Amino acid sequence: MGQKITIEPVTRVEGHGKVTIHLDNEGNIEQTRLHIVEFRGFERFVQGRPYWEMPVLVQRLCGICPVSHHLAAAKALDVIVGAGTGESLTPTGEKMRRLMHYGQIFQSHTLHFFHLASPDLLFGIDADPLKRNVIHIAKVNRDLAVQAVMMRKYGQEVIQATAGKKIHGTGAIPGGINKHLTEEERDFLIKGDDYMNIDKMIEWSLAAVEFFKDFHKKNKEIIDGFVEFPSSYLSLVRKDGALDLYHGVLRAVDAQGKKILHDVDYQEYYKYIDEEVRSWSYMKFPYLKEIGKKTGWYTVGPLARMNTIDFIDTPLAQKEFEAFRAYNHGKPSHKPMHFHWARLIEILHSAEKIKSLLYDPDLMEGELVKKGNKQYEGVGLIEAPRGTLFHHYKIDDNDQIVMANLIVSTTNNNQPMNEAVKHVATKIMTGKKEITEGMMNAVEVAIRAYDPCLSCATHALGQMPLEISLYDHQNQLIDKKIKQ
Amino acid sequence: MKGTPEILVYGYGNPGRQDDALGVLLAESIEPWARENQLHHIHTECNYQLNIEDAHKISFFDIVIFADASKENIDGYSYTVLEPSAKTDFTMHAVSPAFILSLCNQIYNKYPLAFLLHIKGFDWQFMQKMTSGATKNLNDALCFLKEILLKNNNFKVCA
């Protein structure tokens, strides 16, 4: 008897989605799918609006990563106002935006590791859901919980100092930025008390990497043996191959690490990337045109970035990157649990970058905006915490948006997340008649490694319980579990 | 609690999604009102959503009033006492006020007296204009809250 098992929605990822796992008569995995109800209405919604509204307007997409959308939109509009791309802005404009972006990466990655990932590592996949959160971490390791809270807070302070406010920040505008960093803001971020200073953030970031490496050393089966499957990887890289989360050229490598997209200008991304629509999912499936729909899918995000770049230009993160690469014998890592390792290296890199920028006088003086001749089309890409984020706009003579295309990081990772679900399900559910909490959470752990922001992908609002439904081969419901 | 309690009114929601702005707008209205009335012990904060760093923020206050839009079937608004809870929702990129209280307690061994002011909303599309029903509920909730804030004793009654 064939069965369909539905896990709906996925816990501890933003928005909502459901996983269906189809078993054949022998209990083998026949098919798995991660369904995400993507709502594409936003691209229509912005049409007819004046282009300069975009950096603020697009933040409505998501309460999780508004800064990423803010900056990607601003970068696209830099092109439209004739200011050029990333490196063409004034030093102040570019550096203030970078500071904002590193603050966003720092706080977002911190939340994911300490609040979402580390409980799974510390307490185990089978642990009581009530224990798999930062409160229980605080019970067993208060210092770790304090670090999580204060690192998040620090990242938010950086965002507020650069974007102007927490909600609907206005810092980035077409062609540059609308404010300098004040002396007071700079001093607070450099030498604030109550842990709120950049040296403490770097110290804690290093400690977090060490925490992971120590755990990895003692628990190789959990990190390395959880699941592994080959993938291509895509990200921005700096022109010299360095990690650059704010600007660069598009690079993709195959499963062996060979370049398959050769550092191309992202203004022409549509020449290289397309999106496939599949009947069973509202969320599209991006792929590299040259490779084709079937095998041209790729992974984005922290792990992808560690697999595409040649080096990191901050010393502490570079050292950790070297260790990461050496562990993987110089080849791409195909282990989704290595996302956590990569994420921690990027936390450290972001902290180092923040420190470097805070001591840069360009942030406190200099031209804020660059102007040029109006263009009718612009593309802005950024390496958001969850991966490459695309914003593409066209305008008319009245400066109104006539076309918008957004490919969010989570959409880029659609196929990889589906692959991860398939591999985990095959490994742990084959031949099983019942779905245990541990099995369910294992599927979710695989998805969570990608830190999907379904709020971006679906523009979801509200919350839902976890619902698990079991169907027979005739799609008759034979079991249902709800986790409130 | 000694002397005048330090009070935080914390509104959260996405102002870009119609009635989801209710909590934020309430806090934004309280801020100038408190200043004009020289109620220096009343502070405000706004954000898209609550998150773990808010445990640190609320640890400095005696009383915290969380304000949020609600889809629940309530009559205009509701005002309830909050208790700490470690229960998490599935969307853990954001956390509940009760979770924040619990985390605050776990880390700092204390937590403020807390209330949740839920204001009923009706529509949640991508636009900034609230529905007329939500606007009325916001005004009613504001009147209610201002009255309470002017009479600190009410906190003891409610609690």
Describe the structure.
The complex is a heterodimer of chains A (484) and B (159). Chain A is of the alpha+beta class and 484 residues long. Chain A contains 16 helices and 16 strands. In chain A, helix 5 crosses helix 6 (142-163) and helix 10 packs across helix 12 (338-358). Residues 8-15 and 457-466 of chain A have low confidence and may be disordered. Chain B has 159 residues and is an alpha/beta fold. Chain B has one domain: 3-Layer(aba) Sandwich (Rossmann fold). Chain B has a 5-stranded mixed β-sheet with strand order 2-1-3-5-4, covered by helices on one side. In chain B, helix 1 runs parallel beside helix 4 (132-150). The model of chain B has no long low-confidence stretch (mean pLDDT 88). Classes of the chains: A alpha+beta (484), B alpha/beta (159). At the A-B interface, helix 1, helix 4, helix 5 and helix 6 of A face helix 2 and helix 3 of B.
The whole-number mean of residue pLDDT values of chain B reads 88
In spatial order, strands of the major sheet of chain B run: 2-1-3-5-4
Relative strand content of chain A? 15-25%
What's the structural domain tally of chain B? 1
Largest sheet of chain B: 5 strands, mixed
Task: Please state the CA-atom Rg of chain A, rounded to the nearest Å.
Answer: 22 Å
Which bin fits the share of residues in helices of chain B?
25-40%
Between the first and last Cα atoms of chain A, what is the distance in angstroms?
A: 30 Å
Counting DSSP E segments of at least 2 residues, the number of strands of chain B comes to 5
Choose one word for the global shape of chain B.
globular
Tell me the helix content of chain A: 40-55%
Spans where pLDDT lies below 50 across 5 or more residues of chain B: none
Overall average residue pLDDT of chain A: 87
Q: Which class best fits the helix and strand makeup of chain B?
A: alpha/beta
Helix/sheet category of chain A: alpha+beta
Strand segment tally of chain A? 16
Q: What does the oligomeric state look like here?
A: heterodimer
For the termini of chain B, the CA-CA separation is: 13 Å
